[in-house]
Here is the input.
Amino acid sequence: MRNIFNKIRNFNKSSKTNTVSTAVKTPIETSPKDDFPPIKLFISVDQLNILDKKDDTEDREIESKKFLNKKKFKYLDKDAYSDFEYEFEEFFIKLGNAEGKCPYCNKDCKELPSNKSKCLSCSQEFLRVKRPQDGKDVFIKTEEKDLLSLQWENVKDPDLVERISTEELEVVRQELESHGREKYTVYDAHFDLLKKYTPKALLSGRFRLYTSLIYYLAEHDRYDRKFTKALTYYFYVYYLQLNGASNSVVFGDKVRVNPRITERISSLLNMIDSRATDCKGIFEYAIRKTTVFENENLPYSISQAYEYFVNNYLEKEPLQGS
Ligand SMILES: [Zn+2]
Here is the structure.
């Protein structure tokens, strides 16, 4: 992901300075209403193909460059980010034990028939599950069940661009593998492909498409268990969607944030037992670090976007046993 933003930064360095009044089509005075349609999140491969065509891209690029030429390197305090990294490490722990021991009293329960999960020694019921970190079958305490399902929720397969060809992904996958020593999955190939399209979407002024691509990149980070990074990109998507990122080089479309984004954010926050009000630091860090529209007067500033997020976020019940 960092490469994209480096590319953008390099691009910015080389572009001439233009002055732009504003990217905002119609500033939103009041909060967007619930009846605004959710912004479309999923894209199909046809939309990526548009980016390969030349036609009107030159005009779009001129327009788009006006927004993107001012990103400057700035020191940002990374404390909030590091705190979240620590939390994710803390909560994405391997639960249970694979040695067939009772998770309560440590008594050997290997001899229990596989349909029984009550310890003969302490009479506690436990659960037989598979854990995501190593795929091992383990015994866990019943009160660890919620955390385990959130762990699974956060490593589930990433969303893919609609109608993307599996043959094409397989070709990219093999290419990746022939260049590296690692094992690559089709999801890695998908990620690689999207990384190439993200700057294209941005530079051609298709900000909504760009936003969707950031979502898919975040999906891969999540799947890759880079939860803090994923969270920051989901926040960035939230900010862009709330601001009504549009495909015609403007902001301020009357749309609301796609529910999938808040769903992803809340799965991550619930896993680490965090609330929206704990996220001020990381939310602001996420946007400041990634935004390429920092000098634009978007309908919602970063702090307004955060406020909106807090006011519209549905808190879940705290995790059992915490
Ligand atoms: Zn026991």
